[in-house]
Specification:
The chain is of the alpha/beta class. It has 15 helices and 17 strands. It is 35% helix and 21% strand. Helix 11 (281-293) runs parallel beside helix 14. 41% of the residues are buried. The structure holds 6-O-phosphono-beta-D-glucopyranose.
Length: 512
């Protein structure tokens, strides 16, 4: 059976979307993300015959690692983290073109070595090879890497640069508006925007892409997708995990920077944006930016539009876990939030008066990400809520993960000789309909970047617009110190202040 018959979403990945000869250079080659996500993504693209024939992988990092050892590290990473059992034939093909270059991130001579290495690969291939630089390092070295790529003529924009070049950058894209503007300034001094692929891995998730299909490939939603029929929207990105060993990073970040400014804002933009004129990357990103610009500044006062909290000790999966302040690497009296919730208003024709509630947190009751569209009630002339008529608002819930799918709450008649009603669920589940071996977000994203499709990446102005909204919140929190920092037991759905954010507007968080 053809791939595209087995799995309709493989249409977008069909073989004619071939990438040209490519060398992928990973900066931060011995890092966690490289092992967990990038190498397995490359491997699975190989297993699906989606890598170009002339594909080369180059690891770049400070450590001296012989090629052979880097290949071994990569093979181990595939064994441990790939969604498929490794097939030696597939890996051998990739491994034969996998090498390593050791060098400092701030060492111009090392970038000259890298340039010569890429030249040699190109000579062997015998035709033009594009270079895709994947920056998967701590943000402190983003700027030196970008500048050195430019100085070594590797960015492709400079006179005499032989390669077509692209750059993929992992978040964070700054830590507030000012640093985001500075980072974008550095990027633009070296690369053109069309060469830049800012990753938000949520955009690579199947169900996030499905949001566009559901909204714009079905006739039934669009007429209802506005303030006349929609009462409110809730976006939840909840994690069971705590900060684990990432305390050092997390203390500098916190939930607003780590999850809200990027992942949940992207989900919001795709949910609420106007229909784009085409599926072209710029058309979609233009609409997302327009939507983000229409979000009103928040009320940051005591009883306003935001809540923040830290988890205290509690139970996860039947096991006692410590509170945030007792985790490794966390400062005593830390002011870093592990949970944040916002109430947003979008000031445009479509959404005037419809609240959008966003929440995200670590150590919550369950790992679940969903977007729930709550519809208004019909007039209660025939069925008014009461003893006989148990009624709920119609809700359309996009379950991003786990158990990917789409659910709808309708009101139905309970079987019997009198008319009683009860809310019922109608469900579509990816695993049931399509089978469960769907590609990982990074597979789609690495392939799209190789092909040159920026649709699922964040454009510079998107990142800036989102920071414009989030930076005043961060500033208000810095000024307030620990005042207003709520807490929630690990394993719960968040703090009381997050509930209050909704109840004062007669809304309630849905139990996803
Ligand atoms: C990352 C955050 O961007 O997303 C992590 O830095 C978080 O803190 C992760 O755990 C969640 O991603 P996913 O795909 O597991 O929902």
């Amino acid at each position: 059976m053809a791939d595209s018959q087995r799995h309709p979403f493989l249409h977008g990945l069909s073989k004619h979307r071939g990438a040209p000869p490519t060398v992928v250079v990973i900066f931060g080659a011995s890092g966690d993300l490289t092992a967990r996500k990038l190498i397995p993504a490359v491997y699975n693209l190989g297993a699906d015959s989606l890598l170009p024939t002339d594909f080369h992988l180059v690891g770049y990092g400070r450590k001296e690692i012989p090629d052979e050892e880097f290949r071994k590290l990569a093979a181990d990473a595939i064994k441990e983290f790939s969604r498929r059992e490794p097939d030696e034939k597939v890996w051998d093909r990739i491994a034969s073109n996998t090498t390593y270059v050791a060098g400092g991130y701030d060492d111009p001579a090392a970038y000259q070595r890298l340039a010569r290495h890429i030249d040699e690969i190109e000579k062997r291939v015998g035709r033009d090879v594009q270079a895709l630089f994947y920056i998967s390092t701590p943000p402190s070295v983003f700027a030196p890497i970008l500048r050195n790529l430019g100085a070594a003529g590797l960015a492709g924009k400079h006179l005499g640069a032989p390669h077509h070049a692209k750059v993929i950058i992992e978040k964070p894209f700054g830590r507030d508006l000012e640093s985001a503007l500075a980072l974008n300034g550095t990027i633009r001094s070296v690369f053109e925007e069309h060469q830049v692929y800012r990753i938000d891995h949520y955009l690579g998730k199947e169900t996030v892409q499905d949001l566009l299909v559901q909204r714009f490939a079905n006739a039934i939603f669009e007429p209802l997708w506005n303030r006349n029929y929609i009462d409110s929207v809730q976006i939840t990105v909840a994690e069971e995990v705590g900060v684990g060993t990432r305390g050092g990073y997390y203390e500098q970040s916190g939930c607003l920077r780590d999850m809200i400014q990027n992942h949940t804002m992207q989900l919001l933009a795709l949910t609420a944006m106007e229909p784009p004129v085409s599926l072209d990357a710029e058309a979609i990103r233009d609409e997302k930016v327009k939507l983000l610009k229409a979000i009103q500044p928040l009320n940051l006062g005591g009883n306003g539009d935001v809540a923040r909290a830290q988890y205290s000790e509690g139970m996860i999966g039947g096991k006692a876990v410590p509170g945030y302040l007792s985790e490794e690497g966390i400062a005593p009296g830390s002011k870093t939030e592990t949970f944040a919730a916002l109430r947003l208003s979008i000031n445009n024709w479509r959404w005037q008066g419809v609240p959008f509630y966003l929440r995200s947190g670590k150590r919550m009751a369950r790992r679940v990400s969903e977007i729930a569209i709550n519809f208004k009630r019909p007039p209660g002339t025939l069925f008014a809520e009461g003893e006989k008529f148990n009624l709920a608002n119609n809700t359309l819930a996009f379950q991003i993960q786990p158990d990917e799918g789409l659910g709808m709450i309708l009101n139905a008649k309970v079987p019997g000789l009198e008319t009683r009603t009860q809310p019922v669920k109608m469900n579509f589940r990816y695993a049931t309909t399509f089978g469960s071996n769907t590609p990982e977000a990074y597979e789609r994203l690495v392939l799209d970047a190789m092909i040159g499709d920026g649709t699922l990446f964040i454009r510079g102005d998107e990142a800036e617009t989102s920071w414009k909204l989030c930076t005043p919140i961060l500033q208000a929190w810095v000024e307030a110190g620990r005042e207003g920092m709520d807490s929630y037991p690990a394993g719960s759905w968040g703090p009381a202040s997050s509930e209050a954010l909704l109840t004062k507007h007669n809304h309630f968080w849905r139990q996803p």
